[in-house]
Write a structure and sequence with these properties.
The chain is an alpha/beta fold and 650 residues long. The protein is 40% helix and 13% strand. The strands form three sheets. Strands 1, 2, 3, 4, 5, 6, 9, 10 and 11 form a nine-stranded mixed sheet that branches. Strands 12-13-14-15-16 form a five-stranded antiparallel sheet, covered by helices on one side. β14 and β15 form a beta hairpin.
Length: 650
């Protein structure tokens, strides 16, 4: 019985090439690409290293791309059955190269058609399908050319060179956060920063609330310093956290909307503390704080991956699936519950807090943000009865409900139920704060750690100033008055209150002051440390946001294309002055009275000379910077995700 020499020796003679040779070889090529892809993903990501996760990722990545390679191998086999294939010399090596090439085309195709991030320059003709088709043709010609090389060693060498180049690229592109050249100051404290999203001060017991459980925050208020009049400069998550991390106001750093990157000209808290010798790690809970926007700068670990398997969305098959999913289910992994974020943070602290270097850890908890869907037992803690009972009428007045909230509010007739769910989210968030505090106490780090817990902004609930269950459009008390507590090592200033006006711009310089490192010249906020001993701080707090209802009206008339008009506010101890950049809207003066948490805002007359003086201040804020950065169009992917979180109109 004769044996076909093409099968036995690896040669080919057209129809003698077996699919059983080419397809497995191509699948192997795809699998090898997948292993290198996993290496690239793991080396470049911002997550904590985890061998088990990396091995699982490698198995799924390699398996997925093996299927892609097999498809390429099948196509190559069909080609080889034609007259063209009769000259193929080495189907195993050729199939290997085909598998590598098909996986590469998938990788390159996703990158080619992905919209560039704001403020980045895309390659010429980026996204052009004809240019990509030309690239596919070039790869195909190379594959065909390799298939007809006579030397088996040369063919395998080309495949090996392809793999080597990919491995080299993965290693060169690895992410590293170099430690600074300086040592931390002697006895420099650790810093644990917890930011609670969308949390109103008047829902915390420390500010006088008695019917909502926030025992952990309230205990910190007795153990540390409570900011009685702390205000957000902008009720939008991304820009507000940019203000916290840079110590600059929104009109100075230029970001008034989500989805915009932090200007590289401004160093962040993490960069400065890392440069001073700190270990740095962050664990965030929502897409709006995506590390790619600059929030990850300076962090050794930046955990912003909410997927079923961390790292999957950065692999080739994961990116391709995400590209397809964004058109059908863009909010698939936009956020994660606070318990998962806290789990990740505690795991890192357990593994890294015992070293010689102090740590700076940031934990972001997104839960109070809508939709308000607290987990048990908080989902039933503050409401009994039927929220869909037709006898209720309090939801009849609700208007302009954000589209991302409508599914969770469908059929709800009682507004008190929605308020109870929001309260449940606040209590659940407080429970996660308690877990972090418990770790500090149990680990022995309570007396060498500065613990700061605060919110990025508040939330307008049942018709506050005409706003139902939303934030971002106004600068009134509900959206800007925030909880903020600082617990210092060794019980310093325990139980004290800071009554003066405090801004989020003051967070970064306060931390720099407390740990003993120089404040960057780009910071414009003021350290709170002098006020701990009775020193003066601010006479008023400032704020700015887009007047989006006005923008929508003007856009519908075709008068403007991008957001332009802004609102500015000055918050004094007893009143708030609000001014509109849009000239036809009059300024407003609101008196504020009543004891927390029952502060009341009422329109109040204002003397013309005083109004003119305050208008001069607000107009100065408008003129300090342009809205150029905030007029940049986000990518299509970012827009869909921000819409799903309620930050942009659909």
């Amino acid at each position: 019985m004769s044996v076909d020499s093409s099968r036995a020796g690896g040669g080919a003679s057209g129809t003698g090439v077996s699919a059983g040779i080419v397809v497995p070889a191509a699948a192997l090529g795809g699998a090898l690409f997948g292993l290198v892809d996993t290496l690239r993903t793991v080396l470049a990501d911002t997550l904590a290293r985890d061998l088990g996760r990396a091995l699982l990722l490698a198995a799924i990545d390699a398996g997925s791309l093996a299927l892609v390679g097999a498809v390429g191998g099948l196509a190559a086999w069909l080609l080889l059955r034609s007259r063209l294939g009769r000259g193929m010399k080495h189907p195993v090596a050729g199939g290997l190269q085909v598998g590598l090439s098909f996986a590469y085309l998938l990788d390159a195709g996703e990158a080619w058609f992905r919209a560039p991030a704001p403020f980045t320059q895309a390659p010429p003709l980026h996204g052009n399908p004809l240019v990509f088709a030309l690239g596919v043709a070039v790869i195909a010609v190379i594959c065909v050319g390799v298939a007809f090389i006579r030397s088996r060693a040369l063919v395998f060498s080309i495949a090996l060179l392809s793999l080597s180049l990919m491995v080299g690229h993965a290693v060169v592109s690895r992410r590293s956060v170099p430690r600074g050249h300086q040592d931390p100051p002697a006895d420099a404290p650790n810093v644990l920063l917890v930011t609670m999203d969308t949390s109103r001060a008047d829902y915390f017991g420390a500010y006088g609330r008695t019917d909502v459980q926030t025992p952990n925050f309230d205990a910190l208020a007795t153990q540390g310093l409570l900011m009685d009049n702390a205000f957000s400069q902008i009720p939008v998550t991304g820009p507000s956290h940019t203000t916290m991390m840079t110590g600059r106001t929104p009109w100075e750093h230029g970001n008034l909307l989500n989805g915009l990157p932090i200007d590289p000209a401004y160093h962040t808290l993490a960069q400065q503390l890392r440069d001073a010798g700190y270990r740095t790690a962050a664990f965030v809970s929502a897409y709006v704080l995506d590390g790619g926007l600059g929030f990850s700068r300076g962090f050794e670990v930046y955990d912003d991956d909410f997927g079923w398997l961390q790292g999957w969305d950065a692999t080739v098959p994961g990116r391709v699936l995400a590209m397809a999913e964004r058109f059908t289910n863009p909010d698939l992994v936009l956020e994660r519950i606070g318990g998962r974020t806290t789990d990740q943070a505690l795991a890192w602290l357990d593994a890294n807090a015992s070293g010689n270097a102090p740590f700076f850890t940031w934990v972001h908890l997104f839960d109070p943000h809508g939709p308000y869907e607290p987990p048990p037992p908080w989902n039933t803690a503050y409401y009994q009865g039927d929220p869909r009972d037709p006898a209720h009428t309090s939801m009849q007045d609700a208007q302009h409900i954000a589209s991302y909230l409508k599914p969770s509010l469908a059929g709800i007739t009682d507004a008190d139920y929605v308020l109870a769910q929001y309260a449940g989210e606040v209590s659940y968030t407080d429970s996660q704060v308690g877990r972090l505090v418990a770790w500090l106490d149990a680990s022995g780090h309570a007396d060498d750690t500065v613990l700061i817990v605060l919110a990025d902004h508040g939330e307008s609930l049942a018709g506050d100033h005409g706003v139902w269950f939303n934030h971002g459009d106004d600068l009134y008390e509900a959206a800007t008055w925030i909880p903020w507590v600082i617990r210092l090592p060794d019980g310093q200033h325990a139980g004290e209150k800071i009554e003066q006006m405090v801004e989020l711009t003051d967070l970064a310089p306060t931390i720099y002051d407390l740990v003993g490192i120089d404040t960057p010249s780009t910071v414009t906020g003021q350290s709170l440390v002098p006020s701990f001993s009775g020193g003066d701080h601010r006479a008023y707090a400032r704020g700015m946001c887009f007047d989006r209802p006005v923008n929508r009206d003007l856009r519908s008339k075709g008068e403007i294309k991008d957001p332009t008009w802004r609102v500015s506010a000055l918050r004094f101890p007893n009143n708030r002055f609000v001014d509109h950049e849009y000239g036809d809207l009059p300024s407003e003066n609101w008196s504020i009275h009543g004891q927390p948490p029952n502060r009341v805002e009422q329109r109040a007359p204002i003397a013309i000379p005083v109004e003119n003086q305050l208008t001069d201040l607000t107009q100065q804020l408008f003129s300090e910077n342009s809205v150029e950065r905030s007029q940049v169009q986000q990518s299509e992917d970012a827009i869909k995700k921000l819409q799903a979180l309620g930050y942009m109109e659909k």
